[in-house]
Each structure stands twice: as structure tokens, then as C-alpha cells.
Amino acid sequence: MPSATLPRFDLKGWDRKDIAHPYPVYRRYRETAPVHRGATEAGKPDTFYVFSYAEAVRVLSGRRFGRDARTASGGAGAQSGPVPAEYRALRAIVEDWLVFLDPPRHTELRSLLSAEFSPAVVTGLRPRITRIAHELLRQLGRNGEADLVEGFAAPFPILVISELLGIPAEHRERLRANAVALQEASTTRSRSGTGGYARAEAAAAEFARYFRREVRRRRGDERTDLLTLLVRARDEGAPLSVDGIVSTCVHLLTAGHETTTNFLAKAVLALRAHPQVLDELRGAPELTPGAVEELLRYDPPVQAVTRWAYEDTRLGGREVPRGSRVVALLGSANRDPERFPRPDVLDVRRAADRHLGFGLGIHYCLGATLARAEAEIGLRALLDGVPGLGRGDRPVDCAYADDLVFHGPTRLVLDMSG
Ligand code: HEM
């Protein structure tokens, strides 16, 4: 169906209200057509936005779409890799990020890492994750106003990944600031001209110095943290350079950080807007795993993932030429009524586990099991430990980041008391 009444879709230039609640905009586009062409920019490849669940699944599974703009364009014109050439430290640091790789390197590296994110490893981590959550809540206190993002949702995942990697406690805050600066370079924020790449370049250089030193320290070490295991695997012949280890550590820090922060902050907002669901969850801990899946469907922390078309193809009735950029809008796919009946209703008892909140296909979130454990433990700690969590009549100060890819509030001030 033609979409003559709608402007070309663009992730840039949204106002704050639409960013905080993009679903009505998604619905308007999705009801018109499953795939829309984006705004054209001189010298840039065509962009197509995918709104329906079925077409998003097609983009994320199979080999017609991949991660490399140069492969897609046959090597001509397109920027090589995800970062402009002048940002050398940043380019080096993202070089071995799983999320930017195609097979065979993707398969090789993913199989090296996946054992460390298995359900058994995550089960072993649960007591430490629980301790971290309770310690943060204790520091936050139960009285007066507090920013849940700054005091809980942001430090929580960084402390967990630092624990996994074996990063000493005193270095964690510095690494968090660097992880935030790096993330900005890959988001709609930097593309709206806030100098994200320059800050990310400085953060990448500092990360490289830090992790190279940590790799040297771990040679012949008996520790069992993930960083030591990667150093040992390399020494035993695994296809991993020192820079590859540095790149992987930084990838895990950034991939598992803002995503989990945004999940927790948006889960609180969704539950405040649905006080009956919040009350039901408080009294029924066994509903927590299902609630986590439904919250990931209802308002996913990653709203959009990008691929490149490796061949001329058709998608949602449109011709998509080889070399085009294709953006799957996970937040829209998760609200597609063809897949999830009554998609705008938050229903923690529905079977929401086929949501696309963790992506799909070969790039399906490597940390999904860990993320689910963090989400359950973090949410439970908040439900049980913050009496004022659901008090909709109390003032809340909430501000969303100017970003539709990594999507969530940067500030969420609540009255903690009951
Ligand atoms: C990939 C979401 C937590 C590590 C992804 C992707 C999504 C996602 C949507 C797919 C990206 C794409 O297809 O382009 C989330 C959400 C999280 C979360 C919503 C929290 C609620 C974590 C954690 C870690 C992690 C805790 C690890 C510490 C990764 C990695 C990839 C990835 C390494 C790349 C996998 C690959 O390309 O093979 N995540 N993630 N994530 N995630 Fe997560």
C-alpha cells in the first residue's frame, strides 16, 4: 500500500515526547506498510525501515543481510567498518566486536565466548548478582527522593560485568564513564551532532591502555575470571590477538551495560503506569521471569538494529537493492498485532518469549541468559526493597536520552518511602 500521507521515516530529529513513547508513530507506519523507505541523503545508500514482526524476522535470520557495508556494496564507496577512518583507536577497539562481524570470524569468536555465558555459569553467578543488587539498594536508602538510574540501574550491570571480567572494584567507575562515551558513538545521539565520536575516540584509547595492561598482568595467572580465561585460551592457541581480547572485553562492557540499565528503568516506568500489575508481581515472585519477558517485548531497551543487503531482494513488497541499509525496528515488531494479540497491553501472563528484544539469528544476544538473571534479580530487589516504587501520585523526575537505538531514561527520580 502506498504511504503517501506519511513523511519518509527517520530515526533522527524526534522530539522527546515521541522518543519516550515511540509506539504510536511505529503503529502509524506499520499499519500503512511493513517496510518504509527512509529519508535519502546525498552520497549515502538507501535506508529501509522494517516495522512488522514477520519482515524483521526475515532480515535477522538467513544470509541475505549482513553486518558489513563494504561486502554489501561490493567494496565500492561505502565506509569500511562501523567507524569513520579518522577515529583510529575507536576503529581498533570495535574491530573484533561480535555484533559487527559476519561468519566465519563471527562463528569462531562466538563459540570461544559462548561457554562463559552458559546457563550453568550464570546460575553460579546469581548469588553474587543478588549481593550486588542488595548492596546498591542499601546505599540508596528507603527515605526521600533518589535517582534510580544513577543509584541502581546504571551501576548494577557494570558491577556484574566487572565481576565477570575480574576488574577490581576501584576501576569500575572510570570504566563505566568510558563505556558510556563509547556507546554514544554508535547511537542516534552522536549522529545528531553532539561530538560523540571525538569523546568515544578518547575513551577507546584509555580502554586500550587499561586492558593491555590487565592482559599483561594475567599471563600465567591462576584467576578464573573471564579476562584470565581469554588470555589463557590465546596462550593455548585460540585465534585471538591481544587487541582482540581488549576489543572483546570492551564489547562486553558496553553491550551489557546501557541495555540492562534501560531495561530496569523502563520496567519501573511500565509498572508504575500499571499499578495492578505491580501489586500482583509484588505478591507473586513466581511471575517475575514471565514479567521480564513481557517487559522486554513491551518496551525493549534496544529499539533498532542495522543490517546491509548483500543481494537485490524484496522485503515487505518493496525492492531493496544490494548495498541498502536495512533497520529492523524491534520495538515496532514487538507490538505487531499479527504476532502478539492486543500488543499495547502489558500482560505478564502472556507467552511473550518469541519477542525480538534480544534480536534473532546469529547475532542473538550472547548475554541473554545473564541479562535475564540480572533483570529478574534487579526487578525483584526493587519490588521488594523500594516501598515507593509504585506511588504514581508522587513526583517523578524522568528524562529520556536523545536516542532511539539504546532507549531509556537517563534520570528517574522516585520517592523511595512507602
Ligand atoms: C547482542 C539486547 C544484555 C552481550 C544483542 C542484540 C540485542 C541485545 C537486541 C542483537 C544486536 C543485533 O542483532 O545487531 C540486549 C538487551 C540486554 C542485553 C535488551 C539487557 C536487557 C547483554 C549482556 C551482555 C550482552 C548482559 C553481556 C555481558 C551482547 C553481545 C552481543 C549482543 C556480545 C553480540 C552478539 C553477536 O553479535 O553474536 N543484545 N542485550 N548483552 N549482546 Fe545483548
From TrEMBL:
The entry's keywords: Heme, Iron, Metal-binding, Monooxygenase, Oxidoreductase
InterPro entries the record matches: Cyt_P450 (IPR001128), Cyt_P450_B (IPR002397), Cyt_P450_CS (IPR017972), Cyt_P450_sf (IPR036396)
PANTHER family: CYTOCHROME P450 YJIB-RELATED (PTHR46696:SF1), P450, PUTATIVE (EUROFUNG)-RELATED (PTHR46696)
Name the UniProt record assigns to this protein: Cytochrome P450
Similarity field: Belongs to the cytochrome P450 family.
